[in-house]
Amino acid sequence: xxxxxxxxxxxxxxxxxxxxxxxxxxxxxxxxxxxxxxxxxxxxxxxxxxxxxxxxxxxxxxxxxxxxxxxxxxxxxxxxxxxxxxxxxxxxxxxxxxxxxxxxxxxxxxxxxxxxxxxxxxxxxxxxxxxxxxxxxxxxxxxxxxxxxxxxxxxxxxxxxxxxxxxxxxxxxxxxxxxxxxxxxxxxxxxxxxxxxxxxxxxxxxxxxxxxxxxxxxxxxxxxxxxxxxxxxxxxxx
Length: 238
Description:
Blueprint: H1 2-11, H2 20-36, H3 44-64, E1 74-78, E2 85-88, E3 92-96, H4 97-103, H5 107-122, H6 125-136, H7 145-154, H8 156-161, H9 163-183, H10 188-191, H11 193-201, H12 215-232
Parallel strand pairs: 1-3
Antiparallel strand pairs: 2-3
Helix pairs in contact: 3-5, 5-9, 9-12, 11-12
C-alpha cells in the first residue's frame, strides 16, 4: 500500500505544471464524486426549470467565451439545504432546490444566480486563484498539484493571502454574470432582484468579509449596473 501511494504521488502532476486543462480535469473528477453524495434531479419540474434557464445562459457563454463551446457541460439539481449553486471549471453545475425555494427566486433571479456561477468558470477563476497562490507562495510549485488544491481551501495562512483575489472574483462574477444574462435576453432590473432577495435573506446583510462583499454592497452594485444597462439602451446581439 505504501509503494502504491508513493507511486501515485510521484505520478501526480506538480503544481508547476498548472494549466486550465488540469484544473478542468480535476473539477470533472470532484464533480462526479459530489454527485455520488447527493440525491440528484428528484423534482423533475424544478430540474427542467433549471436546465432550461441554464441552456440559454450556456448558449450565450459559448458565443462570448468560445473556449467553453468545447466543454462537456452538465447541470444537476439537489435538495441539499447546505448547498446553494456553483459551476465548477469545465461547466459542471449543481443547484440546490432548497436554496432557490428559500429565496423564492423568479426565473430571472434564478438566471442571475446561474450566470454568476457560470462566469466563475468561464473566467477561469479557479486557475487564476491557483496562479495567484503560486505567486504568493512559490514553494508550492515544487509540490503535487493536489496539495496546492487542498491548501487553497484549507491552509489558513494561504486563504488569508488569497482573500483579496477571491473578493475581486466575486465582484467580477456579479458584474459579468449580469451582463451575460442580459445578453441572453433577461431584463437587467429583474436580474438585480436576486441580490435584493439575497440581501433580505442574509443574517449579516451589511457585513463584508475580506474575501466576500456584503449582500448590501452586491445589491447596490447590481442596481447601479442594471440602471446603466437600461439607460444606455445598448442592444444585445440576437
